[in-house]
Amino acid sequence: MSHKADAVFVPLNIAVLTVSDTRSLETDTSGQLFVDRLTSAGHVLADRVLLKDDIYKIRAQVAAWIADDRVQVVLITGGTGFTERDSTPEAVGCLLDKQVDGFGEVFRQISVADIGTSTMQSRALAGLSNGTLVCCLPGSTNACRTAWDGILAEQLDARFRPCNFVPHLKQAEPCESRG
């Protein structure tokens, strides 16, 4: 990882949404992995919610966070597959001002080592909306670990060069952690 000597770490306010018809907050290992990773990195947990796979509830929650001046990043786990109930990309896609096409491509590329060609069934995506980065990832804990360790840890760190997402995010005061 390349760092500029004068760059400083900027803690971000990150909300975590788990989309699942079967998990509870107590059994949500994927959302918990994001909470553990982001707080260990020095970021702040702005909010954490678990919702059933309902396109309108997902869209409403993500839209509320996009509109919230304090939330800079939204990490969503679950609902990105091909079952009839998987609707996260459809819920979120219409809210994005700009899609980060490379996010899903890189996620699938680094996932090949773990799951082979099954990675093509991931509809992982990301985009920017109102200065908020929104990332949609599969519901498996391993997929969340792959995304954090292989993409998000660097791209949410202002010190990472040649570029990262921090300059594209709205400026926000640190919020009180809800973790």
UniProtKB/TrEMBL annotation:
Keyword GTP-binding belongs to the record: yes
Swiss-Prot/TrEMBL keywords: GTP-binding, Molybdenum cofactor biosynthesis, Nucleotide-binding
Family: Belongs to the MoaB/Mog family.
Gene3D superfamilies: MoaB/Mog-like domain (3.40.980.10)
Pfam families attached to this UniProt entry: MoCF_biosynth
Database matches in SMART domains: MoCF_biosynth
Protein name from the UniProt record: Molybdenum cofactor biosynthesis protein B
Alphabetized InterPro entries for the sequence: MoaB (IPR012245), MoaB/Mog-like_dom_sf (IPR036425), MoaB/Mog_dom (IPR001453), MoaB_proteobac (IPR013484), MoCF_biosynth_CS (IPR008284)
Function: May be involved in the biosynthesis of molybdopterin. Can bind GTP and has low GTPase activity. Can bind MPT, but has no MPT adenylyl transferase activity.
Domain MoaB/Mog residues, every copy: 15-159
PANTHER family per the UniProt record, alphabetical: MOLYBDENUM COFACTOR BIOSYNTHESIS PROTEIN B
Biological pathway: Cofactor biosynthesis; molybdopterin biosynthesis
GO terms, biological process: Mo-molybdopterin cofactor biosynthetic process
GO CC term (a single one): cytosol
Record-level Gene Ontology MF annotations: GTP binding
Domain of life: Bacteria
Keyword flag GTP-binding: yes
